[in-house]
């Protein structure tokens, strides 16, 4: 962890010369006469009466410092950002912001300990950063206390009987599908479809997990469901960090087939008007599309040398080798569509009918309560097939906690919501009622007129867009204090 600072002198020089109404011309336009080896740019006043030569800087060089607050302490992550195992786009987004909840939510004990070795922000920067950052709310502070209590009570310890039971059910379904594939193809398709949905939830558990058991099974999603762990981690953790944030959370970016709010006419689609009548078609494609995305990211991850990329690719190849050898395509293709439909019916209603946010939500805890609704299951089959997603709020607040612990959190979270006066409180609705709520939303949006200027579903700066550091609230501060 030796921090290597990016060049800042060029940035400060460039910043001091920049005027709001200036035009920047590329070197090729103005033919600079410099002999410097550094790339240069010319910056001129609007009327071109006065031009200055300024060194150009690429994205990396232009970055000043990257300061993130975690548990009340500011860390300067500038030198380390490239070392972040999940990619620098994650930490860039929190420049000048509080990242306590995402840090606690996504990381192992080992990662939390690494914090001790990271450099703290300069004291002169800290004061300015603190003034500009949104202060921690009482709800966030109370939530951190609750988390500490739960950790002390052993809520992150796995119940291995439960783990082996759910893994065993998956194995039995695959075996059942294989044995019946010749004699009873319809039953085989049904069992294989159920196994794929179950594999999706198990893979989800393991990739979120922060213990040795989960780390060992990280590639299960690739082998058993054909879903790539890094692809899933990027997409799904973004959904956890920025739940229902319009333009950032890809789980609510389902257009042009399904819309959760009336779009701008430019983003509209004729399909919207009938979305409540055809929703099951895009739902059925969920896993098929995820498999295509998984393959793309698998290759990309190997090319970009992301951690574990080769093994993740092999797990996908092993999956296809297995299903193509054991099952005829007339069984496994329909099974992919069936499992997609079942999984989409489960994942969509717990967020889509709740609050959508046009802006970044600094109080992540309150935002999770406002954007999430639990489903109350009515029978043991539902309790199993929902795969822990019925406890969506517990899962969103504590993504790395084993799912078997969620039911016992209900009373505590109800009290937490009351004590902290969270708007809407602890939200839960019967499993069929919640599906109806989702369908009614699709219908309402289908019947609404397009709204000029409505927020887009994609393309707002989220973690992936954060590499453009203009999005960073800390940008100006770092320059001002020369940090
Ligand atoms: C600033 C906000 C941060 C965000 C939003 C973030 C997000 C993430 C995400 C999404 C993952 C992937 C999790 C998975 O797929 O299992 C990850 C992994 C990881 N991150 Fe971060 N991260 C942040 C800061 C940090 C910092 C400051 C450190 C070091 C102190 C760190 C160390 C790690 C490590 C070691 C992993 C690998 C998994 C683990 O051991 O927990 N991250 N991070």
From TrEMBL:
One of its GO terms (biological process) is unsaturated fatty acid biosynthetic process. Residues 466-475 have a biased composition (Polar residues). The chain crosses the membrane at residues 167-194, 274-292, 320-347. Residues 46-118 form the Cytochrome b5 heme-binding domain. This is Cytochrome b5 heme-binding domain-containing protein. Residues 450-483 are annotated as: Disordered. InterPro entries: Cyt_B5-like_heme/steroid-bd (IPR001199), Cyt_B5-like_heme/steroid_sf (IPR036400), FA_desaturase_dom (IPR005804), Fatty_acid_desaturase (IPR012171). One of its GO terms (cellular component) is membrane. Gene3D superfamilies: Cytochrome b5-like heme/steroid binding domain (3.10.120.10). Keywords: Membrane, Signal, Transmembrane, Transmembrane helix. GO terms for molecular function: oxidoreductase activity, acting on paired donors, with oxidation of a pair of donors resulting in the reduction of molecular oxygen to two molecules of water.
């Amino acid at each position: 962890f030796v921090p290597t600072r990016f060049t800042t002198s060029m940035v400060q020089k460039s910043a001091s010369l920049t005027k709001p109404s200036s035009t920047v011309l590329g070197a090729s336009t103005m033919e600079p006469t410099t002999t410097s080896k550094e790339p240069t740019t010319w910056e001129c006043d609007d009327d071109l009466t006065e031009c200055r030569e300024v060194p150009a800087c690429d994205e990396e060089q232009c970055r000043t410092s990257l300061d993130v607050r975690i548990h009340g302490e500011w860390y300067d992550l500038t030198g380390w950002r490239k070392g972040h195992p999940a990619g620098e786009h994650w930490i860039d987004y929190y420049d000048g912001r509080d990242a306590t909840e995402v840090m606690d939510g996504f990381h192992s004990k080992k990662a939390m300990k690494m914090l001790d070795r990271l450099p703290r922000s300069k004291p002169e920067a800290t004061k300015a950063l603190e003034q500009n950052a949104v202060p921690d709310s009482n709800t966030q502070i109370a939530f951190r206390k609750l988390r500490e209590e739960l950790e002390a009570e052993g809520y992150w310890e796995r119940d291995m009987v439960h783990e082996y039971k759910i893994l065993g059910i998956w194995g039995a379904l695959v075996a059942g599908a294989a044995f019946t594939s010749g004699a009873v193809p319809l039953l085989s398709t049904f069992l294989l479809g159920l196994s794929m949905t179950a594999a999706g939830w198990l893979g989800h558990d393991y990739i979120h997990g922060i213990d040795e058991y989960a780390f060992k099974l990280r590639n299960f999603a690739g082998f058993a469901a054909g879903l790539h762990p890094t692809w899933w981690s990027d997409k799904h953790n973004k959904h956890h960090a920025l739940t229902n944030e319009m333009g950032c959370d890809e789980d609510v970016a389902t257009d042009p087939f399904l819309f959760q709010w009336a779009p701008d006419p430019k983003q509209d689609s004729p399909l919207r008007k009938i979305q409540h009548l055809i929703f099951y078609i895009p739902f059925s494609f969920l896993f098929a599309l995820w498999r295509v995305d998984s393959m793309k990211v698998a290759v990309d991850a190997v090319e970009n040398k992301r951690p574990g990329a080769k093994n993740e690719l092999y797990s996908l190849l092993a999956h296809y080798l297995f299903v193509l050898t054991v099952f005829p395509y007339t069984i496994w293709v329909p099974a992919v569509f069936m499992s997609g439909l079942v999984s989409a019916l489960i994942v969509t209603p717990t967020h889509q009918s709740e609050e959508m946010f046009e802006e970044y939500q600094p109080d992540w805890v309150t935002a999770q309560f406002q954007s999430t609704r639990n489903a109350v299951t009515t029978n043991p089959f539902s309790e199993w097939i929902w795969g822990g997603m019925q406890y969506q709020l517990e899962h969103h607040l504590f993504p790395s906690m084993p799912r078997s612990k969620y039911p016992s959190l209900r009373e505590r979270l109800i009290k937490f919501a009351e004590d902290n006066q969270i708007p809407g409180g602890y939200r839960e609705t019967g499993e069929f009622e919640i599906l109806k709520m989702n369908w009614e939303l699709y219908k309402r949006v289908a019947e609404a007129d397009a709204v000029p200027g409505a927020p887009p579903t994609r393309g707002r700066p989220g973690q992936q867009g954060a590499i453009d550091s203009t999005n960073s609230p800390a940008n100006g501060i770092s320059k001002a204090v020369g940090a």
